[in-house]
Prior knowledge:
With 260 residues, the chain is of the alpha/beta class. The protein folds into 2 domains: 15-105 and 175-185 and 197-255, Rossmann fold (3-Layer(aba) Sandwich); 112-174, no CATH class. The chain has 10 helices and 10 strands. Helix 3 packs parallel to helix 6. Magnesium ion binds at residues 68-69, 111, 181.
Amino acid sequence: MADLNVVGARPRARMSCDGRAPFGRAGGLLQVEQLSAGYGDAVVLHEVSLNLGEGQTLALLGRNGVGKTTFMDTLAGATRQHGGRITLGGVALHMLPSHARAAAGIGWVPQERNIFKSLTVHENLTAVARPGAWTPARAYELFPRLAERQGNLGTQLSGGEQQMLAVARALVLNPRLLLLDEPLEGLAPIIVEELLRAIARITREEGLSAIIVEQHPQAILAISDRAVVLDHGTVVHASDAETLRQQPELLDRLLGVSRH
Ligand SMILES: Nc1ncnc2c1ncn2[C@@H]1O[C@H](COP(=O)(O)OP(=O)(O)OP(=O)(O)O)[C@@H](O)[C@H]1O
Ligand SMILES: [Mg+2]
């Protein structure tokens, strides 16, 4: 299990793929091949393929309702998979039940920020912590606000603090791949900045691989290596993040409205 823990700072991985090469390559961390998934008989994702190298961050973008959350939830095992394969570090994730995916390296922060509201901040962290570089103490160092609120119940936290706690809970699982579904949604600008700085530190300085779904594409593209845009449950764009960031008109076209 030791090899599943991401420890310390690592050099940034080189870009390992582009949109024209959707399948896995040697050395890649995540390979998603022809993934179809949805809810019950309804298929929302249609043959989605993408991959991610070790240490890379992927910005997953798209309009409302195109399947971004369904994609993240499918990696976490919380939807019905209709076809395709998901491989994380050589492990066939799609074969595992959802409860086994954290142990396989998935650190999932769902869109609805699931924290235990009846537990304290500290209990939330110690209840799920797994051995590795990310300890509750390091999570507090990353989010000083949480350190101050250690003894507070989840119900007593602001929206921003709840989001920080949700990220911290995923980190202390010591995942190989962090899944952040709209981590900045509904938060005050000052908290957005604080979280963005923390996310950049986790990914760019500590080298943890991540997929980030976001409605503020410019901010996320600036700290991502790759970008994938979904529409109607399919991949309509895949490139390196900087290429997309430099093309605001394309971005607006892909996302439908002007974003900042
Ligand atoms: N639990 C569910 N049961 C049935 N259909 C669902 C469920 N959750 C989502 N859907 C449908 O799946 C499609 C994709 O939804 P999803 O939540 O993945 O989109 P999204 O890109 O994350 O949107 P948003 O930007 O609003 O978060 C939508 O048509 C939605 O109505
Ligand atoms: Mg969503």
